[in-house]
Amino acid sequence: MRRYFVGLLATVGALTLLLAAGGIAAMFSSPFSAAPLPRSMVLSIDLRNAPPEASSIDLLRGGLFKSSPDLVDVVQLLWWAADDPRVIGLFVEIGDDQVGLARVQELRQAIANFRGKGKFTVGFAESLGGSGSHLGDYYLASSLEQIWLQPSGGFAVTGIAVETPFLKNGLDKLGVQIEGGRRYEYKSAPDSFLETGYTGPARENLQQLLDSLFGQFLADVARDRRLDSAQVRRLIDSAPFDPERAREAGLIDRIGYRGDALEDVWQRAGTVRHLITLSDYAADDTKPKPRGDVIALVRVSGPIISGPSGDGGLLEDDVVANAEDIVDALDQATQSKDVRAIVLRIDSPGGTYPAADAIADAVGRARSAGKPVIASMGDIAASGGYLAAVRADVIVAQPTTITASIGVFTVWPVASELLASLGVKVDRLSVGTNAGMYSTFQPPTAAQRAIVSRELDTVYREFTRQVGEARKLSGGRLDDAARGRVFSGVDAKRAGLVDELGGLQLALSIAKAKAGIDETRRIEIRRYPDDHDRWQRILDRVFRLAGVNAGPAVRLPREVREALTKVGIVARPGNVRLPPMPPLWH
């Protein structure tokens, strides 16, 4: 009875929130259409918080029914603005030094296209490289024609640093041991629980990845700033330093405040004094609506999970990639007579093997039905994220996309020693020899550990078989691409795991070619599932709140749960975050 009332109150509360938000939105929405945009304008875009790969619901700033623009939205608008004769320039506010490098490259390509149409670009930053461990903000700024830096700011772009917490000694002291295994030596995600520091293979692989990412940064910055690559490296190695030295070295152009940067904009704009935000530009009804052949866009964003929608919470779409929903979306796009091709946009660190395999199967079925499928990779497409892409006609990755990680692991904590030291006894009744073999309270037997080892072998063998067949790799070349190694997009192409280096626009161009659409024809990008389907799923989850599950009768001590949750073993099994890069699910 208690659970019934808890569920009822949760449902009523959630419904009230939805209705109230809808009512407030209706009260404050204007009955009039937005004013038409001026005939000549400068576009303004705030990238102090770079757009996410997938859209999210902003409860604090945008209201429950307003989604913040995602990377695809922003990039498409920039490409549109490049061809819009009304837009004469771009003013960019910069400040997100933790943004993923592949997202930066997507934005850099859109800005390069904008500049290529003879339009000016001016950027302003209060500081650059504030964290001292990443360089996304300056990597983005370097693509602009003019970079302004505030006098009180600084240039702290010092490179890329990766730190991994190793918990084994601490867990040993607590009496918590980690069970599981991996395939093979480069599969470093469980090392945080199983080792006391980087293993030789893990250190080698991660250093190779960092060197590749940093090398691309140096080459691109040197080209865009008209500097020598070795000179840029020396400057980065001597940072941080003040804005004046950054200007003298050619890393920035001007020192001043935001108002000074805007004065520079108006001098370039001549008589034009209209600064239009990207959101206002997006809302402009005078732009012709996209018409023409349809290319479907299906997203795989976040950790890939199995099961029906709703298990991940009310706003599940914003944090996980539900395989069942993605398979449905692929099937709908395949069956639609309007859709000529499918672009599968992936930004995922991986997830469960069956869930990723289901997506790969749906991609194969779409191709069998005559629909070309082009995979476009974002910041990361690792492990299950790579498996989801492997059967596509063409795989496109950014040069800095973190990809591959072809391997498997499983880990789980066993706290029997800790519980015994606290005087907690956990007894067990079971039917079946191996019932409860993954228990948190009792370690597995030797025979059960052998079963886990066989499961890892089976999944690894099947994973590599799929990669080998799809990518036409075998023998030593397949082994060199697998064993848990992670690559940058550049190195993944050399390994035969990626076909082309580029972003979403390249993927769309390839999709047009594969579908036989003339290169000059305009296309309509249609998202699957659409927003109506998304809100229906959220509404369905509201009603599922009535089935709130009670927690387990016996729980680990709070300190242990907090320590494990920090590195993801409780909240996201297998997820090890390596700041400042995206999490690598191996």
Description:
The chain has 586 residues and is an alpha/beta fold. It folds into 3 domains: 1-32; 38-158 and 239-282, Alpha-Beta Complex (2-enoyl-CoA Hydratase, Chain A, domain 1); 293-425 and 435-585, 2-enoyl-CoA Hydratase, Chain A, domain 1. The protein has 21 helices and 22 strands. The strands form 6 sheets. Strands 10, 13, 14, 15, 16, 18, 19 and 20 form an 8-stranded mixed beta sheet that branches. A 6-stranded parallel beta sheet has the order 8-6-5-4-1-9, with helices on both faces. Helix 2 packs parallel to helix 3 and helix 7 crosses helix 8 (229-238). The two termini are 43 Å apart.
CATH superfamily of the largest domain: 2-enoyl-CoA Hydratase, Chain A, domain 1
DSSP helical segment count: 21
Determine and state the CATH class of the largest domain: Alpha Beta
**N→C terminal distance:** 43 Å
The number of E-state strands comes to 22
Low-confidence stretches: 1-33, 58-66, 310-317, 548-586
Radius of gyration based on Cα positions: 26 Å
Helical coverage, percent range? 40-55%
Would you tell me the structural class of the helices and strands?
Answer: alpha/beta
Main beta-sheet annotation: 8 strands, mixed
CATH architecture of the largest domain: Alpha-Beta Complex
At the fold tier of CATH, the topology name of the largest domain is 2-enoyl-CoA Hydratase, Chain A, domain 1
Q: What does the overall shape look like?
A: globular
State which percent range the strand residues make up: 15-25%
Can you give the mean pLDDT?
A: 84
